[in-house]
Amino acid sequence: MSFKFRKTFELAVSKLSRIFKSSTVLNSPSTTKSISSRNDAQSAMRSFLENHKSVQFLGKSVGELKRASSLKLEDYVGRCSLLYDSITGRDTVRKAGISVLEAERAFVDCQLNRRRCQQKLFEVQKKRAEINKQLDIISRAADSFIPLITKEHEYAIEEAKLAEEYSEADRLERAAYEKFGSNLRYLHAEERNYDKRMRQWALIGSVALSVLSAAITWFRLRVRAVDPVKFENGLESVNKLVSISEEIQKSVNAIPQEVVRICFQSPSFQSRVMVPSPSPASVPLSIPVPSEGWSTKHLLVSAVAGYLLLRFLLG
């Protein structure tokens, strides 16, 4: 079937392309001949689309495909709706509502039947009361007494029959009313259960979303955490900087002593200052001697540590 459809589709496409080519070749807007040729091409194309079997088959196939896809979509939506109703309990509420409507309809029918039986019984009782009045007036020796007695007997039989039907209709009406009331109470109970279940599902959903958001946040923080290898490399670089800063501090501390030694070795300085030998205690006051608590090391270490901490916080 697919091979046949492909062949017909290719045939239709080839014929349409030939028609389009002929229409474009003959299409020249400057002459009336081009206009007539264009009209002929359009009419030929229209007749081809209307009468050719391949195009008709292609149109039918497209229509069937659309119908099949729409049916599948409706089926899928219906299944999803049934699954949602079964999970939330909405199908039970719907069934209870349908049973309530059916019970209400049955109760209304029983009520109408009971009213009809009651109306018939009232009419028969009224006729029998009129006959009884006539029997009280007419003498028993009259010729019309026997027909009246016969009618009164027939009405009595009919009244008894209608009274039995009325009692049965009244019993059915009471039973239908009780069934309607019980179904209505069941519907209200199911609606309350449905509301309770929906609140529970809402609570479960909110808890699940909060847990999921917390897990995602933890995962993001875990991914953005500092790599141990990079952290170790950073510590090594900090240690190197600390050692370099210590060497710099030692060299800076050795500068005043070296200056004093050079000054004392010069003959001009020896002639001015009569000191037998240079010592750290005889350093002039004009030369700044750094104290032992000079915090170059601490400054460098704190700067490097602050830079690494800032990189860690900013990710």
Word description of this protein:
The chain has 315 residues and is mostly helical. The chain has three domains: 2-87; 89-223, Helix Hairpins (Orthogonal Bundle); 230-281 and 297-314. 86% of the residues lie in helices and 0% in strands. It has eight helices and no strands. The longest helix is centred in the middle third of the chain and has 79 residues, at 145-223. It is elongated, with a radius of gyration of 56 Å. InterPro entries: CCDC51 (IPR037660).
CATH architecture of the largest domain: Orthogonal Bundle
Any idea what the shape is?
elongated
Order of SSEs, N→C? HHHHHHHH
| Whole-number mean pLDDT | 73
CATH third-tier fold name of the largest domain: Helix Hairpins
Instruction: Compute the number of strand runs.
Output: 0
Secondary-structure-based class equals mainly alpha
Name the beta content range: under 5%
Enumerate the spans where pLDDT stays under 50 for 5 or more consecutive residues: 25-33, 273-294
The CATH C-level name of the largest domain is Mainly Alpha
* Helix count from the secondary structure assignment: 8
